[in-house]
Write a structure and sequence with these properties.
Blueprint lengths: L5 E10 L2 E11 L4 E5 L6 H9 L6 E6 L2 E3 L4 H6 L2 E4 L11 H5 L14 H14 L16 H13 L5 E5 L7 H16 L3 E5 L3 H7 L2 E6 L2 E7 L5 H9 L17 E10 L6 E6 L3 E6 L5 H9 L4 E8 L2 E2 L5 H6 L2 E4 L3 H5 L6 H6 L3 H4 E2 L2 E2 L1 H14 L16 H14 L4 E5 L7 H16 L3 E5 L3 H7 L2 E6 L2 E7 L5 H8 L15
Parallel strand pairs: 3-8, 3-9, 6-7, 7-8, 13-20, 13-21, 16-19, 19-20
Antiparallel strand pairs: 1-2, 1-4, 4-5, 9-10, 11-12, 11-14, 14-15, 17-18, 21-22
Helix pairs in contact: 4-5, 14-15, 15-16
Length: 508
């Protein structure tokens, strides 16, 4: 009988006095694809870091090929064939793609120098395997978009011919076409007896492509299920401990007052002149395919991008375009896409990440009033149920969902009349999504006009009062609730995309 690649028994982990894992058992067989799901903070990354050798368990045993081992480093895990591709890229942007793929093990010629020709040739082979053979291996990695960098990271992992491949949110930055190729590669590797673990919040992907799905909750393994015959609702129930529903709930707070009015807004290259309005208490969803113009519209409206034309009014008063300072003063605030890169201040505390939007109000004689800062940020943290030890701990110590809620607290502190949200639940679990939806609904009830762009159609349908569909830099539809079906929204979104039928990524 084939021995498991890895078998862990009774794994427990504590950080100081805080237990994170409570006696987890897990077996991974050759050629098996396992989906690992759970809310942020459930212990998924900690468990995988133990298997990879980055962390040592507080107790429990680990066996590779039936032999007990004690892993003291990532290098030891790699020697056993484990490769962990993290969601946060560990690549070196200034080096070439080929240099990143073979970092630390460059191919040398007889004279002992790096054999650039061979290095690039071998890099091309592995890039072809992950579906990005069009990338020149000599290209500086930092010049590639994030999805391509993610695939280069995957190429680096499979170049080592791993026995166990761990992927953390592997499709979060990929187009559908890239994601399809990734799963084709996964099944190809499985046919070669490579074991794989997918850490993912995309439950549909886990159900479609995995053999088994393991659910962690609060550091405990709740269920280990065959994917076949399991439903998304089953997984959500196991993940959060209660049924979760994302059905639209009318919040009954839309006023007759037009809070924001946008006319003929165009940027320097993409937008064709956008007209859009939102009333107080109204949630307007923006949807579109790749390059449709949703993000460009929000960034131009907020002042991140220069505007070529257009006017904006908030509560009837004109707003100066092209200046974030002026838009914030006028009552407009934005939470951009990319929590890690454009949202949080990673070197600062939770408190400062929240208070940064209101520091002027907290400053006395040139100094920040720390007690007032603690009080205000603490109240918002409590209101939004941010799970943390205290307001002064590093923002990076929080789970992704709690980091996102801290950004919402920052927006609340700014007291916006209009709130712009770009992919507000990107990279958070279903439990945190439900909480964020509640926050958005609460803000609407308080009279804030909310414009939210999302690449997830179920999300738009769950939270929006209207759906404005973008295509080719233009608005092609403005749909009320009665017309907001997935089929109808997609039909409008594809209306101007027929010339690009191969490009189906719903992001941008």
């Amino acid at each position: 009988m084939t021995a498991p690649i890895v078998e862990i028994t009774g794994i427990r982990k504590r950080f100081a006095d805080v237990p994170v894992l409570h006696g987890v058992d897990l077996t991974i067989m050759p050629g098996e694809i396992i989906g690992l799901v759970g809310e942020n903070g459930a212990g998924k990354s900690t468990l995988m870091n133990i298997i990879a050798g980055k962390l040592k368990p507080s107790s429990g045993t680990i066996a590779f090929d039936g032999q007990p081992v004690e892993l003291d480093s990532i290098r030891q895990g790699q020697a056993l064939g484990v490769r962990f591709v993290h969601q946060e890229l560990s690549t070196a942007g200034a080096l070439s793609v080929a240099e990143n793929i073979f970092l630390g093990r460059y191919l040398a010629n007889r004279a002992g120098f790096i054999d650039r020709r061979k290095l690039n040739a071998e890099a091309r082979k592995v890039l072809e395997r992950v579906g990005v053979g069009h990338i020149d291996p000599r290209t500086p990695l930092g010049s590639l978009r994030s999805g391509e960098q993610q695939l280069v990271e995957l190429a680096k992992a499979i170049a080592d011919e791993p026995r166990l491949l761990i992927l953390d949110e592997p499709t979060s930055s990929l187009t559908p076409a890239e994601g399809k190729r990734l799963f084709e590669l996964a099944h190809e590797l499985a046919s070669r007896k490579v074991g794989m673990i997918f850490i993912t919040h995309r439950l549909e992907e886990a159900l479609e492509h995995c053999d088994r799905i393991v659910v962690l909750r609060d550091g405990r393994l709740i269920v280990d299920l065959p994917a076949k015959g399991t439903t998304k609702s089953d997984l959500i129930l196991h993940m959060v401990g209660k049924p979760a529903t994302f059905a639209y709930r009318p919040h009954g707070s839309i006023s007759d007052n037009v809070r924001i009015k946008v006319e003929n807004l165009a940027d320097q290259s993409h937008l064709a002149g956008i007209d859009l309005s939102a009333r107080g208490g109204e949630i307007v969803g923006l949807f579109g395919l790749v390059g449709a113009g949703r993000t460009e519209f929000l960034e131009t409206l907020y002042g991140y991008r220069a505007a070529r034309s257009g006017t904006v009014e908030i509560d009837g008063s004109p707003v100066k375009l092209g200046s974030v300072t002026h838009t914030v003063r006028a009552g407009l605030f934005m939470l951009p896409e990319g929590r890690k890169t454009r949202g949080i201040l990673p070197t600062h505390s939770v408190r400062r990440n929240i208070s940064i939007s209101g520091l002027m109000d907290l400053t006395r004689f040139g100094f920040v009033d720390r007690l007032e800062e603690d009080g205000r940020t603490g109240r918002f943290a409590d209101t939004l149920n941010i799970r943390m030890a205290n307001i002064r701990q590093p923002i990076t110590s929080l789970s992704g969902g709690n980091q996102q809620k801290a950004l919402f607290a920052r927006a609340l502190l700014a007291r916006p009349k209009v709130l712009l949200l770009d992919e507000p639940t990107h990279g958070v679990d279903v439990g945190a999504k439900a909480e964020i939806y509640d926050i958005i609904s609460r803000l609407a009830r308080d009279g804030t006009a909310i414009i939210v762009a999302s690449s997830e159609l179920p999300e738009i349908i769950a939270i929006a009062d209207r759906c404005v569909v973008f295509a080719g830099g233009s608005v092609v539809a403005d749909l009320g609730r009665a017309d907001m079906t997935e089929g109808n929204i997609l039909a409008h979104a594809f209306a101007l995309q027929s010339a690009h039928a191969g490009e189906t990524r719903t992001h941008g």
